[in-house]
């Protein structure tokens, strides 16, 4: 496809595109021919003055990590841009290949012209994540670190960025690697026993079981970070529900300090879903204001009702708003029953998911409150979306004057009194949300790496395999059966570090990166 066969050298714009215009933009090249390709385009002031040389001079021998100023010219010798060139020669670069960065004028047109020039000179457009893929393939990063790079770039809050950085620094990688090594050590020992059992001392079964159980516990600790990882990455969806006129839109406005929701006193005005973004305790929170849920013949209103239910269903947290001045009304009761009642949407969801609390793959595990289930399945539990009750308009009547049915009291994690119009109780709401998702006691400095869903799945796989080993040991099952499960655990951990990972998984991971990363 390319005119010149330097197909292994990739190029991409690595700075932001299409957003706010920047003064400087960067095109990055990586690969064996990066220096050769830039040499075809780049002229320092000196070589420009030396005119007869300017088209013949294909020899560019830059010093690594030394910035040079000059011009980029196309094949006909026409000036394309003035640039600063930063060569980072292998292996002292992000990809461990020769990397050249061209700092050109910002603005989408400028930087696209520079990229186009590089492509015409023989580079190939990088795939999403291809720079980081190369860094991984060349051993500069392991897979867990590479994934943290994507998380860092996508981070929406500083706490999320901090956690991704901890991942890049290798905290998770070291943890996974040490467990994987321990699996492999055990495996080697087992296989030695299979081959030379007579020559080895007797196996200390109890010590072995303790050792594997300790590994399971460590896996559990890592798994415990999954919920936080998910929260940091995708933020928290908080649905505000309630009958018309209790102050949902006012609350959304005051809480998020935006004017996105229209506040009116005509019941049922907010028909579309209004969204507001904010940050609470380092967590990105998406507030969703729903149309007033009401039993009504009005068609538009009815669509709004269905939409509200859909939003409530998809939310990580549901905030139900009632009014202190009206108390618990029949309309509140209808909404409550629709969402939390026996036939409510949360029960329906439970049926959809089979009622299984599936550890870290389900909605964040610490978000799920297990409540005792009704008669049909005694003792089993169902997953309820964590919920808060906001008693608004406390300027009109005391929150304590509202009498709630027992069933309602049980459904909510906490009751918070607010006056949306005066901004009262909003901080309590912040704390209640953080408490609800299990982050109330984490200081922002103590933040550390957290596993993502892919990693959590492999941790679970490793843990299950190790538990099978313990079982086999206890049941006195032959040694070669243990090694199968030990291998499985090692492979699962290798999927996290990237030591044992399939092409398909890699493609899947790196395709989610942006181009230029
Ligand atoms: P929504 O239909 O639930 O979204 O309710 P709105 O936010 O549109 O508010 C309905 C009416 O209640 C508006 O007139 C608000 O100004 C008023 N309102 C909202 N919050 C409070 C509050 O805390 N105290 C008082 N006194 N009025 C409020
Ligand atoms: Zn509203």
TrEMBL record:
One of its GO terms (cellular component) is cytosol. It comes from the Eukaryota. GO terms for biological process: tRNA methylation; tRNA wobble uridine modification. It is found in: Plastid, Chloroplast. Residues 235-438 form the TrmE-type G domain. GO terms for molecular function: GTP binding; GTPase activity; identical protein binding; metal ion binding. Keywords: GTP-binding, Hydrolase, Magnesium, Metal-binding, Nucleotide-binding, Potassium, Signal, tRNA processing. Belongs to the TRAFAC class TrmE-Era-EngA-EngB-Septin-like GTPase superfamily. TrmE GTPase family. This is TrmE-type G domain-containing protein. It comes from Physcomitrium patens (Spreading-leaved earth moss). The gene is LOC112290197. The chain holds residues 99 to 615 of 615 of the full protein.
């Amino acid at each position: 496809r390319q005119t010149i066969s330097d197909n292994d050298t990739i190029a991409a714009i690595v700075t932001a595109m299409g957003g706010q215009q920047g003064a400087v933009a960067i095109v990055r090249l990586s690969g064996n021919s990066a220096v050769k390709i830039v040499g075809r385009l780049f002229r320092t002031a000196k070589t420009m003055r030396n005119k007869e040389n300017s088209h013949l001079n294909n020899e560019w021998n830059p010093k690594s990590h030394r910035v040079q100023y000059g011009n980029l010219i196309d094949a006909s010798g026409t000036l394309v841009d003035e640039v600063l060139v930063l060569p980072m020669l292998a292996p002292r670069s992000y990809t461990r290949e020769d990397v050249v960065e061209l700092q050109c004028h910002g603005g989408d047109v400028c930087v696209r012209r520079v990229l186009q020039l590089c492509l015409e000179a023989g580079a190939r457009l990088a795939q999403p994540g291809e720079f980081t893929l190369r860094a991984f393939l060349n051993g500069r990063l392991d897979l867990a670190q590479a994934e943290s790079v994507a998380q860092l770039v996508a981070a929406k809050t500083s706490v999320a960025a901090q956690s991704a950085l901890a991942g890049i620094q290798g905290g998770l990688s070291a943890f996974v690697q040490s467990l994987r090594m321990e699996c492999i050590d055990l495996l080697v020992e087992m296989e030695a026993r299979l081959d030379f059992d007579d020559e080895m001392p007797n196996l200390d079964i109890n010590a072995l079981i303790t050792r594997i159980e300790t590994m399971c516990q460590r896996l559990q600790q890592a798994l415990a970070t999954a919920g936080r990882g998910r929260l940091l990455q995708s933020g928290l969806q908080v649905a505000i529900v309630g009958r018309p006129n209790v102050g949902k839109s006012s609350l959304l406005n005051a809480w998020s300090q935006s004017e996105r929701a229209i506040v009116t006193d005509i019941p049922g005005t907010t028909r579309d879903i209004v969204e507001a973004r904010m940050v609470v305790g380092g967590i990105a929170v998406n507030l969703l204001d729903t149309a007033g849920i009401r039993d009504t013949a009005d068609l538009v209103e009815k669509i709004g009702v269905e939409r509200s239910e859909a939003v409530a269903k998809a939310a990580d947290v549901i905030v139900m708003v009632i009014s202190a001045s009206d108390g618990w009304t029949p309309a509140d009761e209808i909404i409550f029953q629709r969402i939390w009642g026996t036939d409510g949407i949360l029960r329906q969801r439970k049926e959809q998911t089979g009622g299984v609390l599936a550890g870290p793959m389900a909605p964040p595990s610490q978000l799920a409150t297990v409540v005792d289930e009704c008669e049909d399945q005694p003792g089993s539990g169902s997953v309820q979306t964590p919920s808060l009750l906001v008693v608004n308009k406390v300027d009109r009547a005391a929150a304590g004057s509202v009498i709630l049915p027992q069933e309602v009291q049980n459904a909510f994690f906490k009751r918070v009194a607010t006056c949306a119009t005066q901004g009262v109780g909003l901080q309590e709401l912040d704390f209640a949300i953080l408490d609800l998702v299990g982050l109330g006691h984490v200081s922002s400095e103590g933040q550390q790496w957290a596993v993502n869903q892919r990693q959590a799945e492999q941790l679970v796989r490793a843990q299950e395999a190790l538990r099978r080993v313990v079982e086999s040991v206890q049941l006195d099952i032959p040694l070669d059966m243990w090694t199968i499960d030990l291998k499985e655990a090692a492979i699962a951990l290798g999927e996290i570090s990237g030591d044992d990972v399939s092409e398909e998984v890699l493609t899947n991971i790196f395709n989610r990166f942006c181009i230029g990363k």
